[in-house]
Automatic annotation (TrEMBL):
This is TauD/TfdA family dioxygenase. Its cofactor is Fe(2+). The keyword Oxidoreductase applies. InterPro entries: AlphaKG_dependent_hydroxylases, TauD-like_sf, TauD/TfdA-like. It comes from the Bacteria. Residues 38-318 form the TauD/TfdA-like domain.
Length: 339
């Protein structure tokens, strides 16, 4: 480890242990690209051990520099397909705004696209402008979350799996055209067939989909089991009681914008999700953003969230190294010894 520290110091960097691991530039004029060989070595050594690395104190890379930094790790940046929240593309090369929810809303902890069977392994956040107040991106160790959930509850979720049901548009949720990046129903149906998603076009021209997904997943390289789903976000109990009542009275359960059941279609208990939300809340780590910071996560090992904020804030996202549940099952490795 001393040699690693010496290598970092020789490159004008310091390492601060913790979650996230922080790689700090000792000279604000130093750019990420100038230290990339050492940064790449730290990522190779530490990302799958620590789950999260914060790069701070470097010269502000700007959006284009951030895009180049994320792409330099060797995997093409991914487009945001089958999204569940509104986002806008910032560049033509795979950089998007973070979820465009109102500033006074918090976004609970989640792993990116864990509500489907394909997701990115790596995700980067770039703070182009830190908010005047709040706006942090809390993180949590998904291995720790898995271990802290009651084993009987964990086993029930893992054995049954989850089924996510979505109704798009009608002013209640993202339109299907935006979710599938197409206004061609045939293209949507082809996507659904490829990804084993059930679909139905309703009489008013809107779309409903249903997909059976994992509740727990195993990391393909470390063997760690992780809590990997978004049941606590999709379930109707995630809405405040007044909104639940309004939606259930006006559209009914079948047409809720989103909901989740056990994989066999049976109801998912709100009480179970309350327990899971409690574990997630207890697992949160919050650190302040500085303009120019870049946070890199292993998306399976680390969940992320967003705090409410005041004042202008701009955080953008890039994703890479897409994997699928099917590919993980085909290349399963033994579980990590500590699980």
């Amino acid at each position: 480890m001393d040699a690693v520290i010496e290598q970092a110091e020789a490159a004008g960097l310091s390492l601060r242990e913790g979650f996230p691991l922080t790689v700090q530039a000792t000279d604000r004029q130093r750019g990420l690209e100038q230290a990339f060989s050492v940064i790449r070595d730290q990522v190779d050594r530490r990302l799958e051990r620590d789950g999260a690395i914060l790069f701070s104190g470097f010269a502000d890379p700007g959006v284009e520099g951030f895009q180049a930094f994320a792409a330099a790790f060797g995997h093409p940046l991914l487009s945001y397909e089958f999204g569940s929240t509104p986002r806008s593309q910032v560049t033509g090369g795979g950089v998007y705004t973070s979820t465009e929810y109102p500033a006074h809303h918090s976004i609970p902890l989640h792993n990116e696209q864990a509500y489907t069977t394909e997701w990115p392994m790596r995700i980067w956040f770039y703070c182009a402008r830190a908010a005047d107040e709040g706006g942090e991106t809390p993180i949590a160790d998904s291995r720790r979350v898995y271990r802290r959930i009651d084993p009987a509850l964990r086993r029930r979720f893992e054995e049954k799996g989850l089924r996510y049901v979505r109704n798009y548009g009608n002013g209640l949720d993202v339109d299907w055209q935006q979710v599938f990046n197409s206004d061609d129903p045939a293209a949507v149906e082809a996507y659904c067939r490829r990804h084993r998603i059930d679909w139905v076009w309703k009489d008013d021209g809107t779309l409903r989909t249903s997909q059976r997904c994992q509740a727990v997943a195993r990391h393909p390289r470390t063997g760690d089991r992780v809590w990997f789903n978004q049941a606590h976000l999709f379930h109707v109990s995630a809405l405040d009681p007044e909104m639940q009542e309004v939606l259930l009275e006006t559209v009914g359960e079948a047409d809720l914008p989103r909901n989740v059941y056990y994989g066999d279609g049976t109801p998912l208990e709100s009480s179970a999700l309350d327990v899971i939300r409690g574990v997630l809340d207890e697992s949160r780590i919050v650190f302040p953003w500085q303009t120019g910071d870049v946070l890199m996560l292993d998306n399976m090992l680390t969940a992320h969230a967003r705090q409410p904020f005041r004042g202008p804030r701009k955080v953008v996202v890039a994703m890479a190294e897409g994997v699928s549940l099917e590919s993980l099952e085909q290349t399963a490795i033994p579980e990590a010894a500590h699980d």
